[in-house]
Amino acid sequence: MAGVAGLTATGCSAESSLEAVDKHELPVDPAKDGEWISAACWHNCGGRCMNKVMVKDGAVVRQKTDDTHEDSIENPQQRGCVRGKAQQQQCFGSDRILHPLKRKGWQPGGGEKSNGQMRGKDEWEVISWDEAIKLACEEIKRISDEYGPTGFYCKANNTTLNVLSGYVRGWDTTSHGTYTLDVTKMGLPVTDCGTGEADTSNDRFDLENADYIIMWSSNPAWSAAGTPINYWINARDKGTKFVSIDPLYNASAQMLDAEWVPVRTGTDMALMFAVAYEMMRLDEEKGGIIDWDFLHKYTVGFDAESMPEDKTIDENLKDYILGKYDGVPKTPEWAEPICGVKPEQVTELAQILSKNNKVMILHNYGMARCNGAEMLPQLLIALGAMGGHMGKSGHATASAYHANAGNGGARLVSAGSAKMVKTSDPVTTGVRQPQMYEIIKNGGGHTQDVSNAYGSFHEPKPTELGPIKCIYHMTDAVLQTSLNQKEGIEAHRAVDFVLTLAQFMTTNARYSDIILPVTTEWERCGGFGGYNNREYLPFYTRVTQPLGEAKTDQEIGELLIAGVGKDPKLAYDKTEDQQLYEQIAGCKVMGDDGKMKTLVTLTAEDIKGLNAEGESQEGIITLKELKENGGYQFPRKRDDKYGHIGFKKFVDDPEANPLKSKSGKLEIYCQARYDLMASFGFPGIEQYKPYPTYVVPVTGYESTFKDGKIGGEKGEYPFLMFNPHYLRRSHTVFDNCPWLREAWANPVFLSRSDAESLGIEDGDTVLLTSPYGKGLRNAAVMDVLMPGMVGVPHGAWVDVDEETGIDMAGSDNYLIGSEYAGMGVSGYNNQICNVEKYTGAPLGRDCDKPARWSAN
Amino acid sequence: MGLESLFAFTLLGGVAAGAYVFEACFTRKRSGERPWLLPLVVVALFAIGMIAASAHVQSIPRAMGSLTSGTVNFGSGMVREVAVSGVFFVLALIDMIVTFVKKDSPFALRVVTAVFAVLCMILMATAYIDVYGNPVWTDAPATVLSFLAGDLAAGLGLCVALGAADLGEKPVANTMIAMDVVLAVGMALEIAAFSAAGASPVMQIVGLVVAPVASAVLTLCASKFANKQMLAIIVCAALIIGVAVARYAFYATCAL
Amino acid sequence: MSVGFYLDQSRCTGCRACQVVCKDKNRLEVGTLYREAHSYTVGEFPSVKGFSYSFGCNHCDDAICLKNCPTGAIYKAADGTVIQDQSKCIGCRMCVMSCPYGQPKYFPEKGVSGKCDGCYGLRQEGAQPACVAGCPNRALDFGDVDELRAKYGSNLDNGTIVVLPSPEETHPNILIKTKECAFSEDARELTW
Ligand SMILES: Nc1nc2c(c(=O)[nH]1)N[C@H]1C(S)=C(S)[C@@H](COP(=O)(O)OP(=O)(O)OC[C@H]3O[C@@H](n4cnc5c(=O)[nH]c(N)nc54)[C@H](O)[C@@H]3O)O[C@H]1N2
Ligand SMILES: Nc1nc2c(c(=O)[nH]1)N[C@H]1C(S)=C(S)[C@@H](COP(=O)(O)OP(=O)(O)OC[C@H]3O[C@@H](n4cnc5c(=O)[nH]c(N)nc54)[C@H](O)[C@@H]3O)O[C@H]1N2
Ligand code: SF4
Ligand code: SF4
Ligand code: SF4
Ligand code: SF4
Ligand code: SF4
Ligand SMILES: [Mo]
């Protein structure tokens, strides 16, 4: 008996392994013989990677990422992140909106008929496209006739709406925070990122030349997922040391083993002043720290010797830091109670920033998305200039943002653009987005119009707005991603009509009356996607025919415009196929001579195949290659001639290459930017000067104390809340994908010491309360978070319990209100809140909950 | 079914095998009105155990398939356990039929069957000691001793209850005490194993008190009981319940 | 011959791309993971270090899942890959219970278990395992362990980091370029 005989052999040796060949068939790839298609991954996600899907028997059965060439650091594959890999669950999600939907309780005509209080609670009914367009257009015409173009609101700029009705826009400082407040006036490029030749950061191969890289508010592993982090890893492996200045010892810092300088959110200015103070002290004591020549040659306003001509006050940064004006030297001991950084670490940072070290200060914008951070861009560039850290190899003071994180410089390959008929909004008024909701609720009101587009400010135009009766949602997720969400919901319930174009039951869609189903990029003819990095241009094509009755934005726009009796050609004078062809035809690649050349060869047949009209052309790759490779990657070599050093031209010859500021130099004292801010007439401007000073934010660390004074008794909202951009989502996108919900649980980040004192354990359900709203999340108790800080991941789809008013999803913006002070920055990262253990039923895992809405 | 099926198998089958062994030890020749009673109970319990065990298998056709395609893994503890169990069951069944017909069966057959019973009990235990995913199970001395001693002690209890052995007889009483001591050691080892793995040993403690301790006390005080039949049943019940409680906890340490 | 995985902790950010890519390749629903990444920290604020690890099947030399599988559904391919033939699986879960790495997973609705096959089919087509090809940080590799050692150096850990069970039981084919903190007994999971 075999069993008996083998009884003594309890070990598990190879004797028990079965021969595969005769007893089993070996596995084969089940997806074999399918077709790989380059698929879009098109979100505002921080990366731009290659995504391919295998289509077999009409269904997507697998995805993969770049395997078009051998992987090397010189020529990396453009591998995607965790989200891109779940893209199929987005495009084919059970919550895709497949047919036009109408809210049951809504009727056109306004007032009572709109039954607005039921938005977000009502049921949906499927209606035909004809009916949907008819209903929407009837209502749009009625509102247009009664209230004119200012009866409408949409956050984003939109061609269809420009022609359809016009609309009041909302403006916001979103991504770049206070860098949107025209930093060009002080000599920085627009928003200091991805600006190509003008980039202030260096080419990726230069990272390894730095002795130190200071990651200031920077977590590329999460917010620039995909390729960029590999450049940083390469630098680390080549000996560059990393320092992370962040309230959270984030994933990038951990992986790189960076030295951590924990700082409270919204208090970086205090830390920067103290570092500058220490640099001056150390320079005074032992010398060799500050690059005075650099300061005097390339900047104005640091000290009395170097004031700009247009100055209106005789003050400078140096004397402010030394305490000459307010009697308070900005010492590490002064800063510590504010920012929480130990004085020894401040001194260490000052030493690191010495002119004798090669240092790159690479920052992201989290710290600029804080109340009171208006002058931060100026102080940071001053700090870099003190050490002379720019314009040279191994040195930089710059942003590391999005797909360009750590890879600055002009595009080596770029997509063309289709030349379309120009449209413009008949309304020029822009309202600060969070104030918008109040205006809508009040049936109109006063606004100080200082901008109506991202980052473009102008002299204020005081404007009285009448009632806004219709809200449009075209291509953003504004009700989810803007401050003041709770009031936003109320505003949505106050108007006559809310029209949303949506792929999913997004928050915008949920609180609307008619939802028109839009295709995803997988259902369209193809494209390139924005935000690509300088070396790689992704190109994608159609994966599937439109799902359900979904239509493209253009098709819907045409239907709407025609529905109000206008000519769709006013907005769309070319087919989508023709536009794609023009984009392809316009692709450019860097040539040997430093000039951009045509990338794609197009034969007459190619053009016919694209359903377009045009001339054939000669390039360096064929259309087939572009398609099959999923784009084009510019081949790089470590010592090739395509490197880039930020500010180099300016530093090499400042007279010949002046900056865009008035003085042509970096303005540490910048009258023009100050004047712009002062012109807004916003309250609180008294705190500001044309050079950086410490400003007590409207809401910030100070507000966590009862009397607003640091060190006193803690108030009702003793914690500082910030919103890390989280790897489950690209803002709001992907939040519906089961695999991602399982992979990234979206907890609230709590420090261990706070959790312990509140009796909260890892996994416990926690109630977050702010002055504006309440939300629930499970606790992630961590040692890598500075005590007193609470991290609420950005972008979770709000899920308000109508009984209790508590948001079950932990939406960041449900906890944030609208602050009518500061210079208009959306201060996501220094809000205040309270945290307590929740006594109700535990929340459970997000991935076990049904989708918000399901088509089936 | 989850692990309940394995629980039922090793408990019922183990007790049956244990009883068979002791009957062979204490009664060389079967006699009395119902000589077939013990073999019948053994076969019945074992059959129920095997049926329960088969519920653990999600697909009998696939199990058969592995037989026909020759992939069966005789190196696996489970297959050895099943194979020996099968042999034991067949032998016990023959023994039972012979006994039905002839009022007794050849002692040699019973000895061979008893040897398989012992193997069966050992394999039921050893099947778990290389289940590395479970630190309680892989504690070999604890697992083997508590299984084997539990089966034997409860089996002896069953013999006594069925009248196949008499607690009033010194050798039987001594054997019972000895089994209780070994079982107590096994359960003590289990308590240690549970604690080391961070699992609560409460049910093992309950098992220890209910099975070896209680049955030993009752056995030692046997002379004080008038109703010997009742005493035998109580001893049997205590052992089976105690072993069952402890063994259930043993299975419950597996998350499945 | 043995094949196995290589993981470089100095590159792994715990991003879980490997986890999702594996679900894609194996079409796994929520609740079943053949590969999962976790992050851990060592120390207390403000002196903390962190490490991540991506857990999967290690195609062990002494694969206890194979040893304990009654039907022989689990076998080794000639290259050493530990593969399960689901058509022979009777759902007894011995493999699931046996593996100290918690690896084979049970599908209650289907009454069978399943496990990582090292993407054997993909490798036959000349591709890398999906998780390896999908790791954006190039932290993972797969192959013949001797070749992996030759490629990444001999100074690799064979699975003794604190979050793994002792490699003595099954002799896993895992080669880890470790972070020092991954050996600390005080490691705590970071559940962000
Ligand atoms: N509290 C807090 N709020 C924040 C931030 C924060 O850190 N904290 N971050 C801010 C930042 S930096 C940003 S950039 C914003 C982002 O804010 P949004 O731009 O509003 O955010 P997304 O989620 O990217 O929104 C894109 C929407 O477009 C939809 N969409 C995608 N493709 C198409 C298409 O082809 N057609 C149409 N019609 N729709 C499409 C998507 O489904 C999604 O709903 O959020 C800001 N909000
Ligand atoms: N995964 C993911 N990636 C994304 C996005 C996404 O939604 N999800 N969105 C994309 C977009 S549009 C944008 S704008 C970028 C945003 O990218 P980031 O600005 O990099 O995003 P954040 O996560 O908000 O902030 C980065 C780091 O700053 C820290 N931080 C927050 N406040 C402060 C502060 O006051 N001081 C200091 N010193 N540090 C602080 C945070 O802890 C975090 O580690 O991400 C892009 N990439
Ligand atoms: S970083 Fe963005 S483009 Fe790249 S895979 Fe992730 S979601 Fe897609
Ligand atoms: S994909 Fe790579 S970096 Fe991300 S968790 Fe997995 S092994 Fe680590
Ligand atoms: S890790 Fe587990 S499942 Fe994988 S071969 Fe080893 S024992 Fe088997
Ligand atoms: S569940 Fe399937 S693969 Fe696992 S041990 Fe049982 S028969 Fe073998
Ligand atoms: S080798 Fe394949 S099956 Fe195994 S963990 Fe990686 S992706 Fe999953
Ligand atoms: Mo952004």
Helix and strand layout, with pairings?
The complex is a heterotrimer of chains A (856), B (256) and C (192).
Chain A: H1 2-5, H2 20-23, E1 35-38, E2 52-56, E3 59-64, H3 87-91, E4 101-103, E5 124-126, H4 129-147, E6 152-154, H5 159-164, E7 168-171, E8 212-216, H6 220-223, H7 228-237, E9 241-245, H8 251-256, E10 259-261, H9 268-286, H10 292-298, E11 299-300, H11 317-322, H12 332-339, H13 343-352, E12 359-363, H14 376-386, E13 396-399, E14 413-414, E15 430-432, H15 433-441, E16 445-451, E17 457-465, E18 470-473, H16 478-481, H17 485-494, E19 497-502, H18 507-510, E20 514-517, E21 526-527, E22 536-538, E23 540-541, H19 553-563, H20 576-585, E24 588-590, E25 596-598, E26 600-601, H21 604-609, E27 621-622, H22 623-629, E28 631-633, H23 648-652, E29 666-667, H24 671-679, E30 719-722, H25 738-743, E31 748-751, H26 752-758, E32 765-769, E33 774-782, E34 789-791, E35 806-807, E36 831-837
Parallel strand pairs in A: 6-7, 6-18, 7-15, 8-9, 8-12, 9-10, 11-29, 12-13, 18-19, 19-20, 26-27, 30-34, 31-33, 33-35
Antiparallel strand pairs in A: 1-2, 2-3, 4-5, 4-20, 14-24, 16-17, 21-23, 22-28, 24-25, 30-36, 31-34, 32-33, 32-36
Helix pairs in contact in A: 4-19, 9-12, 9-13, 9-14, 12-13, 15-17
Chain B: H1 4-26, H2 37-56, H3 60-68, H4 77-102, H5 107-126, H6 140-161, H7 170-196, H8 202-220, H9 228-252
Chain C: E1 3-8, H1 17-26, E2 36-44, E3 47-55, H2 64-67, E4 74-76, E5 82-84, H3 94-98, E6 105-107, E7 112-114, H4 120-124, H5 130-134, E8 140-144, H6 145-152, E9 174-177, E10 188-190
Bound molecules: ligand MGD (2 copies), iron/sulfur cluster (SF4) (5 copies) and molybdenum atom (MO).
What can be said about this structure in brief?
The complex is a heterotrimer of chains A (856), B (256) and C (192). Chain B is mainly α and 256 residues long.
Helix content of chain C: 10-25%
Portion in beta strands of chain A: 15-25%
- Total strands of chain C: 10
Oligomer: heterotrimer
- In which range does the helix fraction of chain A lie? 10-25%
Which CATH C-level class of the largest domain in chain A is it?
Alpha Beta
Count of spatially separate domains of chain A: 4
CATH level-two architecture of chain C: 2-Layer Sandwich
Protein name (chain A): Dimethyl sulfoxide reductase subunit A
Domain Molybdopterin oxidoreductase (chain A): 96-556
Pfam families (chain A): Molybdopterin (PF00384), Molydop_binding (PF01568)
GO biological process, one term (chain A): anaerobic respiration
